[in-house]
Structures are given as C-alpha cells and as structure tokens.
Please model this.
Amino acid sequence: MYASINDRIHPSLRELTNISNLILSVNNLISLPAYGLCAMNTTCRLKLLDISFNKLRYISKRAFDGLVFLESLYLNMNDLHTVYMNTWLTSLPFLRTFSAKLNKIEMVLQNGVSSINHSRIEILDLSENNITHWSCALGFHNLTSLNISHNAISMFDDECFQFPLLKNLYIQYNKFSKIPENVFNHVKFDLINIFMEGNPLSCVFPHESCEAIRYLLRNKKGYFNAHTVIKDYEAVRCTGPPKLANKTLASLNYKDEHIHCDIPNNLSCLYYERVCDYLKVYNCSFRSWQSDLPKDTNILYMTGSLKLNNVSRISSTFVVNDNILQLYLNHNAIVAYPQRAFDGLTNLRILALNDNNISEVNLAFENLPFLEVLSLDNNHIKKVNAASFSNNVNLTYLYLHNNLLETLPSGVFDALTNLEMISLHNNIFKCECNLLWLKKWINNNINIVSRPGDILCVNAYNGMSTSNVPILQLLDMYFICAGSGGKDRTIYAIIVSLLTLIVFIVAVILVRRRKYIRWYVYIKYGNRLFANEDDDDEDVKKYDAFISYSSLDYQVVLYDLAPVLEGRDPPYRLCLHYRDFPVGASIADTIIETVAASRRTILLLSPNFLQSEWCLLEFKVAYEQVLNDRMNRLIVILLEDILEDQFDKNLKKYLSTNNYIRWNDPLFWEKLHKLLPNVDQRLNKLIKAKTDEYNFAEEIGLL
Model:
C-alpha cells in the first residue's frame, strides 16, 4: 500500500492489520506514533515498511511495537541523529534488512546485547551518516552484508567485531588508517569481500599485519589472506610515508625497501621490519642516539646522528652486533676511526662513511670479509694504506671520488677481484712515476671505472707544464718523478718539439695539396681522404638510428617518436622492427647487422623492455659496440621510473656512468637532437662531395 500523507500518520492506518507492504516514502513526515504503527492488542501482518525521504528527526523506542512479522525496514534520507537498535530489534524478531543511510546518525544506542545477538538481521546499511565509533554490543551474528561507508569510523575495537557469517563489508570513506585485520578473526565463510577506498591508509603497517601485507603484495590480486579480498584494491591509496604517498596498494612493489612494518618499542629511534626481506631496521638518522640498539637489528641508520651528539671520532669496537648487515654513518663530522672500529660487525655487507671529514683510510676494514659496498666519497681523504682492502675480496662497489687523493699505493686494488664499480674522479692526483700503475689499471679495468674521463692529473707535463689533464690522455713518458732532475724533462721536451715540428710540416703539406691528393686517391682507389669519423659514418652506415623497443610500447614509436624524427627536413633515417627487418631472416643475426649499420641505437627503456629477451639482446649488442668502438653510440630514453634492482648487470653498469633522457622531460626533443648525428651536416657534405667530383671531372676533361 502506498500512502501520501502530510506531516503525521492518521490513526486509521494503525487499524489496517492485513497490509503486507506499506510505502510512506517521499512525504513530509516529521514523527511517528510514539506507541507503534500497529493498534494496541492487534497483530499486524506488515512485512515491508519504507519511510524514506521524509523529515523524521526522532523515532521513539516503541515506534515499531507489534510489527512482529516485519522483514524489511527503510529509514533512508531523513534527519535522524539516533537509532535505538536494541529496543527496535526486540520488537522486530524477523527483521532481515535494515537501512538508515543518508541521515545524520551519530549514535547507535543499545541497552544490552542479547536481543541483537539473536537477531535475524542479514543486511544492515548505515552508510553516509556521522557515526564515529562501532559499539561492542552490535554483534549481529546472522549479518552477511554491512555497509557503514561514508562515516567517520577510525577503528573496530578488538573482539567487538564478531560477524561469523559476514560476506561483504563496506567501509569506504571513513577514517581507517590501517586495514582492520581483527574484522576477519571470527568469520566462518571461505571468503569475505571488503571495500575500503577513500580511507587515510598509512602504508607503515603494524607489525602484526606484516605477513598479511606480504601476502597482499605478492599475489597482486587484493587478497589480504586466503579468506579475505580487498575488492577495490586498485583504488585504495597510501597517505604515508612520504615516499609512498598517493600510491595505490596495487602499485606497491613487494621489493620496495620503503614498505615496512613498525615494531612496538620504547626505543629512542624508529624500529621496523622491511616487508621485502624481513630485515629489521633501527633508524636513528638525524636523531640523538641513546645507545639502545636492539640485538636483532640488521640495518642501522645513523646518518647525521653522531653529529647531533658532537661525536667526531669513532671509538674502538664502535658497535658489537653480528646481526648487523648494513651500517650508515654518512653525513656526520667523523674525522677518524681506530683500526679496530668495526671488528664487532663481522657480517657487515654495506658500510657508508661518505660525506664526513675523514683524512686517512687505515686497516679498519680488514676484519670485514663479507663487505660488498664501501662508500668513502666526499671526505678529505689524502692517504690510503696499501693493505686497506686486502681482506675485502667480496667488495663489489668502492666509492673514493670527491676526496683529496694525490697518489695511491701500487696494488691497493689487487685483492678486489669481484669489483663491479669503482669511483676515483674529482681527486687531485699528481701523475708522477709512482702513479703510472694507476693509468694502466684504469685502462685494463675501464668497464668498472666510473667517469674515467674525470680522473685528472693536476700537475701533468706533456711537453709543457699544464693541469687537469685526464690521466688516460697523458703519455706514459710523462709520468716523471720530481727527483729525476731536469735532464729527462729537457730530453723529452726536445723529442716532443721535433715530433711536433715534423707533424706540423706534414700537416701544412697535406692541407695545401689536399685537393690534388684527394682527387688522385679518389681516381686511383675510389676512396676519399680527409674524412672524419662522421663522414665515414655518413658514407657507410645505412641508418642514422636503430630504435630498440618492446612491442608493447609500439605506440610511442609509431605515433610519437618516428613521425617527428622522420618528418623533419632533412629526415633521420630510422630502422624500425616492423618495417625494416627482413621477413624470414634470423632475428639475432638481423639485430647484430642492424646495430652495426646504424650510427646510433636508441633504447626505449620500460618494464616491458626488461621483460623482452630480444630487447635485452639488442642492448647487449649495442653495449658491446660501445666498448669496442670506445665511442658512445647508445641513447637511452626512460619511458617511466624503474626500480634499480630490475636492471640486469650490464644495464645497471651503463646507467651508473652515462646519462639518459626521460620521456616526460620538457626539453626531451632538444636533448635527443643533440645526441643524434648531424643530418644537416651530412646533407651539406653530400652536396659538396658531388660538386667537387663534378668540378674535378670537368677539370681533367671527362665532361
């Protein structure tokens, strides 16, 4: 029965005991009869009552007395502030659906739990209200769907949320800062769906949830455990910590070291467990350390903390803990450390001492046999002991750049057979006879030396006194010791002067007669002389650039990159997989031939690229060409950010010592054109060469 009424229910409605459905929605009701909609001493057969879209501000505790057969009650879109759940449900023993969404409910009151615990209610919707707390007494044991989204609830009290038959839980747009794991402790169903978008979720997780978070990030499908799935997993965002802010749960990488679980403690610094590798971290960076180090700490951050405590010298056996694998002492004011300083850290893998005031590297690392990374850059180091690294056979990364090194003892790196990268640039090396070994060592290990062109000699002598000459450009004959006297320098000066004079005379002859020499050689042998490397490339190379990309990123090439480069005047000659690779030929052979036939190789680096076997082969071939030619023909374009640990070994090496261009860089096209070969110059040279050939042929009477 539908009833259109004014602001109050007429008493005659209470006499209609045989009505099964009563719709009183979209009226102007401001109140209900205080003693029920069913007349005294009568039994109403009403099963559905809808009083939505009215102006009800208050409903009495006895308003639903006598409606013993009611199954569905709708109070949506009114002005209610309080609901008396316990009393109402006592009067409504068969109620299965209750909805009071879009009100102003702040409190859900009850006088006890017995009637609620025996209630048959299955669907409860209190969404879009002002509820701030979920009461312990509200334990609907038959509830299958609970919607309390768009409220202000921040947590569920432990043991209060006991819905054993719950299947769907809607808590979107509340104030939950963590996933309410205690919700699922009493659920008997195999699977429960939870919806929680729009909550201020902190992605610094509680320690008791750590295993569940690992499960969530590994399966990538929203499963919090085997029985719980976050259905809007791709829309739930982190509000912190800062490095994870605004990222969705779906986008979090299980291997990200910033994802961690706080460990309850009363310590002076942050103590947490990393999700990716179970390592326990004690982070005292830029905090005053109280020496309260937990025994099971694996990573100790003390960046800037010693400086706050005015500690400039590390004491002997500074920390004794076999569990510590990484120690960060960077950005302090350390000037020295004793030789036994790190003896208590026998399992240490990473030691960061960069950005301090250390002046000498002694034997303090000899009892660290498992050390893999050692950062000593940005100090004031002037001296390195010859045996400083003699026991560090597992060292793979050694940073010594930005120091005050004038020399290094011969053989200081001999024990480092597993070294993958070393940095020595921005020092003040004096390239005398005792440093010739370093030039040869750098030449023999050029693949692992970072920025070799920036390793400079400040007192070089190459026929005349000069400074800041790259050590690899200084001839062996000029590594002269200061004590050898001026006689050797005079002899070298005379020899160099004579050689310079001879070279100058030959150059003058070649320049003055270059046209006739070039004509003769061209007619006799078909070759052009006096062509630089770019000229050779123009004549020999078929393509200006070969573009290496994953087929999943083809749209970037097809619609953006290729149209711009091939659409300019003059155009770049590009080699593209789908267009220029011969059909039926061996892909591996074609890749090798194409890289060799291209003046540049452009890599479109993305996660898709790293998953492609052919893309990695193309990088390997191009990288080998860089090493063989000693000329960087490789251009790397980063389509999106990629975690460093996803790169393969050679790619990581290359990117650590060379620049790349970001696809979203505002100056992208300008930077790319600077790295590509000069096609304007190529065109001008071709025109000039044709003109010279024509003039020469005309001069000798062939035309």
Q: What stands out?
A: The first helix runs from residue 85 to 91.
